[in-house]
Design brief:
The chain starts with 12 loop residues before the first helix and ends in a 17-residue tail after the last helix. The protein is globular, with a radius of gyration of 17 Å. By secondary structure, the protein is of the alpha+beta class. Strand 7 and strand 8 form a beta hairpin. It has nine helices and eight strands.
């Protein structure tokens, strides 16, 4: 079991934006958990016993609109928390929560999280804002998947993931990216190949490197900026959450 002091930073931007006393209360008894690519933390119908605040790596909320076809609804990184809807009293998972990019997170007992986030204060304000931003991301992602070209959607997904990791390079298998975008693997190969030929990324042996952040932003659809803007507007994190220096690997 890990011990987090009131003055220590966690690496999760939402937690680190809290008043030290609120953060210490929330992290009483918290434990660090690894985030491994493809690891399923929750499946639909599973009981929610804890919520996970990523400090590195990312989580993916995956839904299955029809049998055998899975697609990502939202990405969760160090700006937020998995199973955030449990703050509203839910104790059952409606979607799959799966590791997207390897890292680690801080697991907090769900009843403690729900109790503290239901009380007026900074935590409640942050969680309410994050819930609204998370809903906006899921809604825009659904619309994006319905109307925008796969190349634009692929660029959007890569940018959202790049915003939430500490490196310009991260592991990513074609099969997993296909699930994230709700398409077949051959389509992902063509789309990633197009972005690579344009000099925006390199993609080899299950690893993506962002070469031209500015170019990738030009290649995506408006949904990326709309999602990013909603998080910036609704979740006032002390250290920000989206990298501003293209390609720097810094947030």
């Amino acid at each position: 079991m890990d011990t987090y002091s009131a003055t220590s930073k966690t690496g999760n931007l939402l937690l680190d934006s809290l008043d030290p006393t609120e953060r210490e209360d929330l992290l009483a008894g918290a434990e660090t958990q690894p985030i491994e690519v493809g690891h399923v933390f929750l499946s639909p119908g599973d009981p929610i016993t804890e919520v996970l605040f990523p400090r590195s790596g990312t989580l993916s909320v995956v839904t299955e609109p029809r049998m055998g076809q899975r697609v990502e609804a939202a990405t969760v990184g160090r700006e937020g928390v998995g199973s955030v809807h449990s703050a509203l009293g839910s104790r059952v998972s409606g979607q799959e929560l799966v590791g997207q990019v390897s890292g680690e997170g801080i697991a907090v007992e769900v009843d403690l999280f729900s109790k503290l986030s239901s009380q007026p204060g900074q935590l409640q304000d942050l969680i309410h804002g994050y819930l609204e931003a998370f809903f906006a991301q899921a809604s825009l992602s659904a619309g994006c998947n319905a109307v925008h070209h796969l190349n634009e959607r692929c660029a959007r997904w890569l940018l959202l993931t790049h915003d939430r990791v500490d490196s310009d390079t991260f592991d990513l298998k074609q099969e997993f990216l296909a699930v994230m975008l709700g398409v077949q693997r051959p389509s992902v190969s063509i789309s990633a190949g197009t972005l690579q030929e344009a000099g925006l990324i390199t993609y080899r042996r299950g690893s993506i490197t962002i070469l031209d952040r500015e170019g990738l932003e030009q290649a995506t659809c408006p949904c990326y900026e709309m999602i990013r803007s909603e998080y910036s507007r609704l979740v006032p994190l002390a250290n920000g959450q989206v990298r501003t220096d293209a390609g720097s690997g810094e947030s």
